[in-house]
Prior knowledge:
Layout: H1 3-6, H2 12-40, H3 46-53, H4 57-63, H5 67-91, H6 96-112, H7 115-124, H8 129-148, H9 158-175, H10 182-194
Helix pairs in contact: 2-3, 2-5, 5-6, 5-8, 6-8, 6-9, 6-10, 7-9, 8-9, 9-10
Amino acid sequence: MTSADQSTPTRPPARRARRADAERNRAAIIEAAGVVFAEQGCAVDVREIARRSGVGMGTLYRHFPTKDDLLATVMEREFTSWLTAAHEAAAATEDPWEALTGFFEQTLTNQAHNRALVETYTATGAPARECARHRDAFIDELRIRCVDAGLLRHGVTTADLVLLSTSLSQAVQAADDGHPGQWRRLLRISLDGLGSRNTEPLPEPGPRADPSVND
């Protein structure tokens, strides 16, 4: 027997198996959290997420030390998935107005089925600054398409459309289960106001509030 035969064998398969288990556990936690957050909102007890994912609390906390860490991960995934789908839908729609209105419809329909997403959207606008930047750039693209086609009311800005999206998200949250279709009425009213046939000048938005001044 050679010295090579007598050397201590390495054990990469065991380490790879542990890494694979950890990755599966993380994926299971995120998947379960996505469902639970959508059903019950941001205030859900993480013990329910651990139960549905089939892991212990220790495992959950090893991957996500706080519920906020887990919520941010899940919401960024949901937000990115929604924005990707919105891009694809807009690219497949030739009519600029249909692309814009379809964006609002898709956004609110998605939020109507996800409590945590609408809570996050109305509270902060997006789960992360980078997510908000991508969303705003996409909304600007939709706005420019409508402007170039002469379909958007004069003076409507990207900031107006972003704020409208956030405001309608609050309507989704307010309507909740009591009046689940109410937001669709408000959406239609809002979209009618964006059309170019409305020629009355819009009020000036006014100066931005100084964030350094306390109320």
